[in-house]
Design a protein that fits this description.
three-stranded mixed beta sheet; 3 domains; mainly alpha; elongated
Length: about 325
């Protein structure tokens, strides 16, 4: 494998690493991948040929990791694969290309107009100072402006987005955009929207924990069980007090399931029952009517559609009887 460098014009005999590497690439790559890249930069000065096995021995890294590192850096366009090896590309050239390549989602006119917004400029300055130590790469500015345009976030939401990702130790573009997409899908535009969303998420987590505790589950909820709960809370807009009524009905069942709970709660929603008092009133009425219908059937031997309709619900409301 031959390692070459695109730009070999060096004045001093040193291995130079551009600052852009530290602001754009360092935080996204793992330690072994960084070791591989740095050694490739060093070898490229001399156009050295080196085999993968020799590179593995020199760096004390398994061959598989070396191969994965090459694929990773090739994906970021930091290196380019050739038939006989790799070219180590000039990082400054890569960043200049990003800066001066037109963005299809944001026109130069949009960028110019947004730059005049003093609040937005202050927000970007705050992001630079708080999360990039005042040395944010120029390409980030265009990306932030593009995200403002794409998602319609206000300035405080954008700052909070970076703060959230920074605290997750994931301050890189893919993760930031994934979080931004999730917020946007939940109709977050303003900081007030974000606060309401976070409160709703906290409520959801609290209810999930409460349900697990009441069912005495010693395991994590499955993805499907969590989906049931989210349907009851988000779609049906029920609180824990309504769900608790359903949980009480599992006491007579040996192995209560979320499928049973969902059928029960969905039936209440279909009947447009909105609060605990309405649910309890329905259960009381159902119990009384069912008892009357069965008593009438015993006396007369007559079975009608209404009776059969109630019998179809017996399994669902069995412990009401």
């Amino acid at each position: 494998m031959k390692i070459e460098q695109k730009d070999t014009s060096f004045i001093f005999s040193t291995t130079s690493i551009p600052d852009i590497f530290f602001t754009e690439y360092l935080s996204c790559a793992n330690g072994d991948f960084i070791k591989v890249y740095l050694y490739m930069v060093f070898l490229s000065k001399y156009n050295k040929d080196i085999k993968i096995n020799d590179l593995s021995k020199a760096l004390n890294i398994p061959v598989k990791i070396i191969q994965e590192a090459c694929i990773y850096w090739e994906g970021t366009k930091v290196i380019t694969k050739k038939p006989n090896g790799y070219i180590v590309n000039n990082l400054q050239d890569i960043e200049l290309h990003k800066l001066y390549s037109p963005k299809v989602t944001l026109s130069p006119k949009d960028i110019e107009q947004n730059s005049k917004n003093q609040y937005r400029a202050k927000a970007i300055e705050s992001i630079n100072n708080n999360y990039f130590q005042g040395i944010m790469s120029p390409s980030w500015y265009g990306d932030i402006e593009m995200w403002f345009k794409k998602y319609g976030f206000d300035e405080q939401v954008m700052i909070t987005l970076f703060d959230y990702c920074f605290n997750k130790s994931a301050l890189h573009r893919n993760y930031i955009q994934a979080v931004a997409d999730a917020w946007s899908k939940n109709n977050i535009k303003t900081y007030s929207d974000l606060e309401n969303y976070e409160q709703a998420q906290e409520k959801l987590v609290s209810i999930k924990k409460s349900i697990s505790k009441k069912l005495k589950l010693t395991r994590q909820l499955t993805q499907y069980e969590e989906a049931y709960i989210e349907k009851w809370i988000v779609d049906f807009k029920y609180d824990m007090d309504v769900i608790d009524l359903a949980l009480k009905k599992t006491t007579s069942k040996t192995n209560p399931s979320f499928d049973y709970l969902d059928k029960l709660i969905s039936d209440w929603h279909d009947r447009n029952l909105k609060n605990p008092s309405e649910v309890e009133q329905f259960l009381s009425t159902y119990k009384k009517q069912t008892s009357n219908i069965k008593e009438l059937a015993k006396k007369t031997g007559y079975s009608n559609y209404e009776q059969r309709s109630y019998e179809n619900l017996d399994s669902l409301y069995a412990n009401n009887m």
